Amino acid sequence: MKSSVVSISSNIAEGAGRKGTKEFCHFLSIAYGSACEVETQLIISKNLEFIQKKSV
């Protein structure tokens, strides 16, 4: 989960450093995918009672 969280901001930063809008959008898409991974991991963690609902 930690690597997915780091991936979000890293991909946004990398995309911002690119020259074209198309490249930036590509990295935003990757960041969005990582955000979806984190959301899924949080849901699974809650359902398996690794974390409490109020922690999410």
The best one-word shape is: elongated
Determine the strand fraction and express it as a percent band: under 5%
What is the count of DSSP helices, taking H or I runs of 4+ residues? 2
Compute the separation of the termini in Å. Answer: 13 Å
Main beta sheet, described?
A: none
Q: H/E series, N to C? A: HH
- Please mark out the parts with pLDDT under 50 across 5 or more consecutive residues, or reply none: none
Number of strands: 0
Q: Compute the gyration radius: what is it?
A: 14 Å
Helix-strand category: mainly alpha
Structural summary, described in words:
The chain has 56 residues and is an all-alpha fold. The protein is elongated. The protein has helices spanning 2-16, 21-47. Helices cover 75% and strands 0% of the residues. The two termini are 13 Å apart. It has one domain (2-55). Helix 1 (2-16) packs antiparallel against helix 2. The protein is built from two helices and no strands. It comes from Rhodohalobacter barkolensis. This is Four helix bundle protein. Pfam families: 23S_rRNA_IVP.
